[in-house]
Amino acid sequence: MALVAEGPGASSRDYFDLFQLAPQFDLDLDDLAARFRNLQRAFHPDRFAGQDAGEQRAAAQLSADINAGYRVLRDPVARAGFMLQRLGCDLKALERQPLDGAFLMQQMQLREMAQSLAEADATAKSALVDEVAALMDGALADFRVALADDKLDAAGEAWVQLLYITKLNAEVAGSSEPE
Amino acid sequence: MVLLQISEPGAATEHAPERKLGLGIDLGTTHSLVAHVADGSVVVLPDEQGSVCLPSVVHYGEQGVTVGESAEALATAKPRDTISSAKRYLGRDRSEFTAASYLELQDEPLAFVTSQGCFTPVEVASEILNSLRHRAEQALTQPIDGVVITVPAYFDDRQRLATRQAAELAGLKVLRLLNEPTAAAVAYGLDSGDEGVVAVYDLGGGTFDISILRLERGVFEVLATGGDSRLGGDDFDERIAALLQEERQLEGLNPSQARRLLQLARAAKEALTDAEEVSVDLDAVVPGTPVVSISRQQFDELCADLINRSLDACRRCLADAGLSEVDQVVLVGGSTRMPVVGHAVAELFGRQPLNTLDPDQVVAMGAARQADLLVGNRDADDLLLLDVIPLSLGVETYGGLVERIVPRNTTIPVARAQEFTTARDGQTGLVVHVVQGERERVADCRSLASFELKGIPPMVAGAARIEVTFQVDADGLLQVMARELTTGATAQVVVKPSFGLADDEIANMLRASYEHAGEDMRARQWTEATVEAEQLIAGIDAALARDGDLLGSEEREQLDAAVQQLKTAVQGADIEVLRRQLESTGRASETFAARRMDRSIKAALDGVAIDSLSGDSE
Fold first, then answer.
1. Mean pLDDT of A27-51
2. Among candidate residues B134, B233, B225, B125, the one with its CA nearest the CA of residue B180
3. Cβ atoms of residues B360 and B39 within 8 Å
4. Which of B356, B386, B416 is the last residue of a domain?
5. Span B253-308, pLDDT tens digits
6. How far apart are CA B447 and CA B433, in angstroms?
């Protein structure tokens, strides 16, 4: 059994709609958190304790959607992917598109560096962490600009780069974690 | 109805609020407690001697089963018939244990061998719960509507199911299994009214948990949780016991002696909480053995690696929460009385931990709050818990690797789907193997369940599209469904392994225990079902009056018909018919309920503006 990719979520809700937000890339995360808590306060299944089974199941589904929406919207990379999907982009097709050679080369070099990081070399590690963070910021800025200019192709490419950088980031962060 | 309260705050509830009774139970490794809420405050129930802690010890004797102090008193005389720390064995396999020297274990299913027969950990735990149930029934005149039982946050699915089975066996209706650190946070949060990020360090008799939560206006949001389900006060006792044994060359101890030695070790550990040095008299283990003295410093060094294991888990948990510091640290569990724990925790988090509530009682207190809410007492505190799954859930993929579908620390309830395909040409079936854990390889994770999806039409490898959906409800219970998308073939499983007791065996044992109460029981079940039916009918009627416009005429007819059938079933006398009709009418109303909730989303978020105006300090 071989994995293909993450399939569609169990619900195809528009999370901006659910959180009553305009579909913008830049979100106030404190406001998002407050909306999340208010929605759960109203719809979490525990609020329907003692109610009938239909209500409880409907609440469980809505509550799961609220959790999923919060997870997607609070993370800029997931949010970027969701916005592309919302605009009709096929994310799986995007992931299969060839990437810029220079970008890939740089990614490979950084990954090798991450893997060969000496446990004790805190200076090298923090330099690498900073470099990856700067790359992340750059790709997010690219995405933001491309989206504002309605350049979906460029936004799609920036998003795929974000996926790569996210993986790299996890590798750098994990390089000193105990197994 | 809740929806009514959203649109019209303060409106009266439709069903007369008769206060229900929910119990909070802390089923601990070394001792257990039961609490309830009365007049807005939590009461931890004492036994007849005034003690709130029931030792989690069960003795199987010729005269029957005894639990608690009286069982503990028999531990040395009848070591094999006296089971303590059974919680450490719940939901586990024999292969996971090196035998405790004073117990005899049976392999399959894992059970304790006593002179009165074999008893599984589930059965032992159910005796403890039963004893607490009796305590509550003696003290409170009302019938018990349901219980919230606490479990270590780091308990996996099988351990949770074993706990649930133990409760069912004791005749208790489980409203929720609540994570122990979350329960403690609730008790502290509601007690102090403080807000912000709290770390709960919970070192109990057999397990260690660390949870990080954000408290804000009655919402307790678990940000991350971690721990070690095999690290607890027992390990510290064993260290001391091993030291004593080594110092005095005590070898070949029989079960009684081993048990006595452990008791002395524990007493020494507890004495070192206040004393700088203790002398241990080993005469009771092997007569004539000279006294051994242990200093606190010696003890601290002996256990430094155990403390470090807990600190590593704390660091990982902080990283998972995406935080570098917290506003408050709370100590929970009797083992946090060891001074070395308090010092280590204060140093790691850079602040003095709180222990203003009794660390033995705080978990039961939080559980009682949640139980009060979940039995449906609407005047319960404005409290909402948003908990997470402690361990990642995934499926086995080609090559024995794990594909993670729901990562650890995901807020529940959750529904997540992922697509897979076939590996071989013409493959018409596949096995979905559900696992839990953080490791890459299936062999290193815990196997939860396995089921087969059949009826995939023969296709070339990679052409089939199989969607696997994981659903975890607010209880943390997992349901997995697999569906082939081109044909619609489906298979699903509710993860429910058994621990030496199949579900029907439990049902049989329950039936036996209820036989004496047969008629009363049936009458009570009928009354409960009719009350539920009447509530459902009234709820739908009220909702139709308010939001009837949300249904098309055909949908309306279907719902009306379902309500009518339910009314007919209530007039009948067959409990099974009534239950089936309750279920189907409930289903029929689900879409309607979902649409009404959608309609009220805007109203729910109107509060955000109010929150922002009230001087948000975020």
1. 90
2. B225
3. no
4. B386
5. 888 888 899 999 999 999 999 999 999 888 888 888 888 899 999 999 999 999 99
6. 8
| Per-residue confidence (pLDDT) for residue B100, from 0 to 100 | 61
Do B553 and B456 reside in the same domain of the chain? no
The domain that holds B476 is classified in CATH as: 2.60.34.10
Domain A93-174 in CATH 1.20.1280: yes
| Residue B132 counted as domain residue | yes
- Assess B367–A contact: CB distance below 8 Å, yes or no: no
B211 confidence band (pLDDT: 50, 70, 90):
very high
Alpha-carbon A17 to chain mean position:
18
Q: Does A15 touch chain B (CB under 8 A)?
A: no
Which residue type occupies A80? A
- Report how far residue B239's alpha carbon sits from residue B266's, in angstroms, rounded to the nearest whole number: 10
Residue-level pLDDT at A146: 95
Cα–Cα distances in angstroms (integers) from residue B15 to residues B28, B378, B535, in the given order: 37, 11, 8
Which of B174, B473, B555, B614 is best to mutate for the A interface (most A CBs within 10 A)? B473
The answer to whether residue A70 neighbours chain B at the CB level (below 8 Å) is yes
Predicted confidence at residue B497, as pLDDT, reads 43
Ordered by start, the domain boundaries in chain A are: 15-74, 93-174
CB pairs under 8 A between A and B: 181
Superfamily, domain A15-74 = DnaJ domain (1.10.287.110)
Q: Quick check: B460 contacting A, CB < 8 Å?
A: no
- Closest by alpha carbon to B133, among B41, B125, B96? B125
B87 is known as an active-site residue: yes
Average pLDDT of the residues in B566-588? 88
* Reported pTM: 0.81
DSSP string spanning B242-292? HHHHHHTT--S--HHHHHHHHHHHHHHHHHTTT-SEEEE-GGGTSTTPPPE
From the list A5, A48, A64, the residue facing B419 with the nearest CB is: A5
Q: Are residues B209 and B262 in the same domain?
A: no
Domain encompassing residue B244: 233-304
A177/B539 Cβ within 8 A = no
